[in-house]
Structure formats: structure tokens, C-alpha cells
Amino acid sequence: MAADNHGVDLARRLSHVRWLAGGTGSGKSTLARALAERYDVLVYDGDRAERDYVGRCTAHGQPYLWALLQAPVARTWNGRSAREIFESMPSLHGETFGFVVDDLLAMPTGRPVLVDDFRTLPREVSPLLTWPEQAAFLVPTRQFRDRALRARFADGARARANWGDSDHSEALARRLARDDLWDAEVRRQAAELHLPVVPVDGSRDVSDLVEDLAARFRLGCPTAGNR
Fold this sequence. Notes:
Strand order of the largest sheet: 2-3-1-4-5
Structural class: alpha/beta
Oligomer: single chain
Number of strands: 5
């Protein structure tokens, strides 16, 4: 009973939070910025916050994240299958979600906070929701993600930062295959928990998706300058 009460209390304390998660390359950050500008919400940027997780993880508490941090960048993607890379993801094992919750509890509560975080899975966030569409999981089609990631990693410096001096074309192929596995996991968990998945295929423009998400998230009226 105490654990149940703790979960209810945590959901209450995070009732101002909206969760935008799902696959990489689905446009989450673009939509988060647009929602922040139009509806005056705070954004928790998971990619930026991840840098702080490094100093907070331990070999015992976050073994997958710890192992990832000890390995050279190239080794993360070379010599392993997409399945092996997927199964070693710290977020698949729930290692980063506690950091996210701690960060959110330390943020102001006077405005809605939008979490833009690839790592969030439906099973983690489900107990913290006060209504199902407080979270939305964006899942891109393979074609949409392929275009997005090829454009992203056309920048050689960015590709080297992610993959070192390995063969970038092979690393990208494994990255795309790994992300297919992540999407399948997101869909599976969301279906089991009756949480919404929003497909992204490029047929809807940003403003349409922003209005859709704002309605799901119950963000109310746009700020005066955006009406």
C-alpha cells in the first residue's frame, strides 16, 4: 500500500508534466520547441540533460550506462549486431528514468513542463500519468527516419562524435536497425498500456502536429503573441 501511495503522490506532483517520447528522427525536438513558443511551456531536453547523468551514474546502480561510458565510441557500434546494441541500451533497462524524475521534481511547477526525451518508455511513464494522453509516443516510418538521420549525419563532425573513425555508412545502417527495434518496443508497450502512439510519415506539417499534441496535452490557449 505504501508503494501505491508513493506512486499516486508522484503522479500528483508531476501532473504539470507532459511527455513527448518515441523514436529518433521523428521530430520531437522541433515539435517541443514549437509547443514551447506557442504555449509558453518549459522544455526538459533529454539529450542535454543526459550529459549530467554521467556524473550521477555508478557501476552498481546503472551498469549498462557505466559500461557504455567506459567503452570507446567506435566500439559501441562496431563488431556488434543491431540486436546486441539495442539490448545494451541503458534506457531499455530503465537506468536513466530515475534521473529524469529527480530533475523534474526539482523544476518549477507554475507552468507545464514538456519532457522531450527519446529514452522514455511507456512502462516507465504510465504510473505517473493522470490521463493517458499526458504522454505521446512519436514513431516515424522507416523512410522518414532514414531521411532525417542521413541528413543529420551528413555532417562529418557529428558523425565522428557519434561513431568515431569507424565506417560511418555501416554504423548508420546499424543505428537505423537498432532504432527499428526500439520503435517496436515502444509500440508493444504502448499497446499493452493503452497509451497513444502518433505515427510520423511527413504527411502532416509541424503546425498540424503541434495543435494535435496541444489538444492531447491539454495545454489550453496559445500565448497572446501566438494567437
